[in-house]
Amino acid sequence: MNRLTQSRLFAVLVLAILALLALYMLILVRPLLAAVYDFLKAVLAPFLVAMIIAYVLNPVVSLLSERKVPRTAAVLLIYAIFVFSCAVIFVNVTPMFAGQVRELNEHVPELTMKAQSMIDHFNNNESFPESVRKGIDRAISGVEKKIADRMAAFTNNIGAVINVLFLAMIVPFLAFYILKDMQVIERTVFRYVPRDKRQGMSRMLKEIDEALGSYIRGQLLVSVCIGVLAYIGYLIIGMPYPLLMAFFVALFDIIPYLGPYFGALPALVMAMTISWKMALLVAIVNTACQFLESNVISPQVVGRTMHVHPLTIIFVLLVGGELAGIVGLLLAVPFYAAMKVVVQHLFAYYVRRKTV
Question: Reduced to 3 states, what is the DSSP secondary structure of residue 22?
Fold first, then answer.
């Protein structure tokens, strides 16, 4: 009996049974966990966004603090510069952007008719099997229905609109207090860490900062660069609504690997309603932007500090998107990078304890 309990097979069986029991318990309490998750997501989302903003701006605030500028004054100065920059952009870019949105809205029925005509032409093309045509038609109808339902639900839900506006207003205030009291927060955290563990904790936080710092700030800069390049490319090829289409490219480019493909979709769909030649030109512009990002801009700006395999990043993005939608896609890779550093330090600590 002792030999059985000490064997590796017995240990594996016990672990497998415990894992199955844990999975069964999770399935039983899934409704409760879903409710808790929805509550935490709603409450913590503005804090996470504010922490990212504070993390991006903290190096500038710290630099000003080292120059004998009070930290509160430094934060207010950064906010003033940010508001002034936004005002300049708003005055110069917003009229053009709003005009393109208004013009696009006026042409939506015409574009919809063109898209429907293309779909009908495809469905009537007898060179494709009927089952394939019906399957594609069902898929397109399903996508259209989902988009329409989501938009109708959002516009009809006044509470959701008010909640989004409230979050947009509260995030800058949260980021301000996090930036102002960053050192106080650090001291408070270290106060609850045992003295003999503080050096290791400090080293771990420094590694997390190195892993995330260049990635977050660099990814934002890369997205802006790609948006500008896409705008120039769309202007050259004569693409309608170039600023609006380039905005989508820059917005989705924040998401690594998958983002450029999502960002190119609006321009490609728009181009296909114009002509196949325009669709080809748009594909060439986006491919050129992706090539420049991968081989020139991203290595120079972001660097290869993440040390994460692309397959791992794609898997992490899929999990993040499934758990938290767009927010999950944006936060998945930084969260994974931070947790990777934490797990490495915990594993090293465990190994040290075993060898002592």
Answer: helix
* Tokens 């399935």 found at: 27
pLDDT in tens, the chain (356 residues): 455 545 667 667 777 888 888 777 777 777 776 777 777 777 777 887 788 788 778 888 888 888 888 888 888 888 888 778 777 777 776 676 677 667 666 666 666 676 666 666 666 666 666 666 666 666 666 665 666 566 555 555 555 566 667 777 788 888 888 888 887 888 888 888 888 777 888 888 888 877 777 677 778 888 888 999 999 999 999 888 888 888 889 988 887 777 788 888 888 888 877 788 888 999 999 999 888 887 777 776 655 556 666 777 778 878 877 776 777 777 788 888 888 888 888 887 777 776 65
Closest-CA residue to 159 (of 169, 167, 148): 167
CA distance 1 to 271: 73
d(CA 175, CA 322): 27
Show me where the domains of the chain are located: 32-192, 196-356
Estimate the share of the chain in helix, then strand, then coil, as percent rounded to the nearest 5. Answer: 90, 0, 10
Inter-CA distances, 223 with 98, 162, 301, Å: 21, 29, 11
